[in-house]
């Protein structure tokens, strides 16, 4: 017998499709107020604001304003070209390029048909009326994560005109976190929709293949790509609707110290493959988002032109998450430079003399210093980013905790005490976010506890502890403080010598 269950019918789509469009003033899209005119662009002909990827978006009015104060080191023929390259690599230009690639892999011929559209290499797809057969999950005795055999031939499909050769030609990034080809290579056209589905999901559903959830750098790469994918799919004023489901393509229950971040994207608990164990499910609307390990993706291993900074995409992401998680800045009454020193409570890369360094900072009358351990043992993730968002200079050793830089204010400074020979990771992320980056320069003024011992790869700078020269440290912080004074209050300390 055919058992058809419909999970909750979405209300909001009906609202937004109604003939009378609400005006900006009466809309509560629960988004950062600065984003509102950009979101309404597609529906308000008089709005000049645009994100930057829309076909009729004027460069002057786009959301982003990346700058390239540094040299391009031979990457670009002119300043303007340099900015353009950065925009395409790490800003909404990346979204624009990806959107331009979207093409039908399975084309509807009737109004109620299915459809499947994807970019090159199947890095992003969206579909309507797609059947997914989860029968295989019944027979897996090992937990499913980063695997390519969740589906077999014919276990995903839709009722539409299928361009098989076109799709096959894009299955060349066949790797779990690089593309959707491990799943879509099995796509087939079907005769009936919903046909033999056990379940129909009416709310839009984002299926995510995620990176390591224990590591903030990697997991935020998932969140950034989720956000970018909402831009890819831009569905007008409900583009950031939280009435969407998230299905994580793993059989393990989702758990992460950063899980609160999902509250910015969905009102529902996240699903995993076990939610649909053994069932055939019809999704009326799916998005297969950009992935965390794409070749030339964001932001893991992204090639980024020298000299440029301030990606609007990263700023918008930061604002969006902070706004949705209800994180605010507290008024700073005493105008002191607020310094947060991230202390690691781990086996490697501890700062052996951190108490000495922190004491030295605390002696400066213009600094307000806080030492923090960002662990869910002591602080919820929201409490952590609240502290970060109220920081002017964020100091810490190389490590995933520095990903907090995404939530620093625009005028802030990231001081990566020492990059442990991994030069680009946080420097580039800081550039993308548009905060100033400082790191240790004089290798004669730091001490490694030993040569560093990777459990199986021998000596490596990441696997030991360090101590730093106090006065060199103070000088570098002072350099950061000057930047904050300048950016935040619009004056340089040369004319105000309280620093
Ligand atoms: C757009 O601008 C025109 C001319 O300024 C004005 O007549 C019209 O009412 C505006 N439309 C909206 C939707 O604001
Ligand atoms: C789902 O897959 C199983 C195993 O391949 C198959 O026996 C079953 O017929 C499929 N169901 C549908 C509705 O396609
Ligand atoms: C994607 O866009 C479609 C319309 O183009 C919309 O109906 C759907 O809700 C969007 N999906 C998500 C997950 O936002
Ligand atoms: C680094 O510091 C940690 C914490 O104090 C300690 O457990 C570890 O043994 C130290 N590592 C080295 C290489 O000395």
How far do the termini sit from each other? 78 Å
How large is the count of helical segments? 12
Q: What portion of residues is helical?
A: 10-25%
Mean pLDDT: 91
Morphology: globular
**Main beta-sheet annotation:** 12 strands, mixed
Describe the structure in your own words:
There is one protein chain. With 499 residues, the protein is of the alpha/beta class. Helices cover 24% and strands 16% of the residues. It folds into 3 domains: 37-95, no CATH class; 102-288, no CATH class; 327-490, Rossmann fold (3-Layer(aba) Sandwich). Strands 1, 2, 3, 4, 5, 6, 7, 8, 9, 10, 11 and 12 form a 12-stranded mixed β-sheet that branches. A 5-stranded parallel β-sheet has the order 14-13-15-16-17, with helices on both faces. Helix 9 (354-362) links the parallel strand 13 and strand 14 (367-372). It binds 2-acetamido-2-deoxy-beta-D-glucopyranose (NAG) (4 copies). One 2-acetamido-2-deoxy-beta-D-glucopyranose is lined by residues 44, 46. Residues 1-25 form the signal peptide. It comes from Sipha flava. This is EGF domain-specific O-linked N-acetylglucosamine transferase. Residues 321-413 form the Glycosyltransferase 61 catalytic domain.
């Amino acid at each position: 017998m055919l058992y058809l269950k419909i999970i909750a019918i979405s209300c909001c789509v009906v609202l937004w499709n109604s003939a009378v469009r609400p005006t900006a003033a009466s809309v509560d899209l629960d988004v950062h107020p600065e984003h509102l005119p950009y979101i309404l662009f597609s529906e308000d002909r008089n709005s000049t604001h645009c994100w930057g990827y829309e076909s009729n978006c004027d460069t002057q009015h786009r959301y982003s304003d990346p700058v390239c104060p540094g040299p391009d080191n031979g990457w670009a023929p002119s300043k303007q070209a340099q900015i353009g390259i950065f925009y395409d690599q790490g800003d909404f230009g990346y979204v624009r390029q990806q959107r331009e690639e979207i093409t039908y892999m399975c084309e509807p011929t009737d109004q109620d048909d299915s459809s499947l559209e994807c970019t090159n290499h199947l890095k992003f797809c969206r579909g309507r009326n797609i059947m997914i057969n989860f029968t295989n999950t019944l027979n897996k005795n090992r937990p499913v994560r980063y695997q390519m055999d969740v589906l077999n031939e014919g276990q995903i499909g839709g009722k539409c005109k299928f361009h098989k050769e076109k799709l096959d030609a894009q299955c060349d990034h066949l790797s779990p976190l690089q593309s959707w080809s491990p799943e879509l290579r099995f796509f087939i056209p079907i005769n009936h929709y919903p046909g033999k589905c056990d379940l129909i999901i009416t709310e839009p559903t984002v299926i995510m293949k995620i990176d390591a959830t224990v590591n903030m750098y990697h997991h935020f790469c998932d969140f950034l790509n989720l956000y970018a994918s909402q831009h890819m799919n831009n569905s007008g004023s409900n583009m950031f609707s939280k009435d969407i489901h998230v299905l994580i393509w793993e059989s393990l229950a989702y758990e992460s110290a950063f899980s609160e971040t999902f509250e910015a994207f969905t009102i529902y608990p996240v699903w995993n493959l076990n939610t649909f164990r053994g069932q055939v499910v019809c999704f009326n609307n799916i998005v297969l988002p950009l992935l965390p390990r794409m070749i030339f993706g964001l932001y893991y291993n992204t090639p980024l032109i020298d000299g440029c900074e301030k990606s609007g995409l990263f700023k918008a992401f930061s604002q969006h998450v902070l706004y949705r998680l209800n994180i605010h800045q507290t008024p700073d009454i005493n105008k002191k430079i607020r310094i947060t020193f991230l202390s690691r409570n781990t086996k490697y890369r501890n700062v052996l003399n951190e108490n000495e360094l922190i004491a030295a900072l605390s002696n400066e009358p213009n600094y307000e210093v806080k030492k923090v351990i960002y662990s869910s043992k002591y602080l919820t993730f929201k409490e952590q980013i609240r502290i970060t968002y109220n920081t002017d200079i964020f100091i810490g050793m190389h490590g995933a905790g520095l990903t907090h830089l995404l939530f620093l204010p625009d005028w802030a400074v990231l001081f990566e005490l020492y990059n442990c020979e991994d030069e680009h990771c946080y420097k580039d992320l800081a550039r993308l976010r548009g905060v100033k980056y400082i790191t240790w320069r004089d290798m004669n003024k730091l001490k490694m506890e030993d040569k560093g011992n990777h459990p199986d790869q021998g000596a490596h700078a990441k696997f030991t502890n360090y101590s730093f020269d106090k006065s060199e440290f103070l000088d570098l912080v002072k350099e950061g403080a000057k930047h904050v004074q300048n950016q935040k209050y619009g004056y340089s300390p040369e004319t105000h010598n309280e620093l």
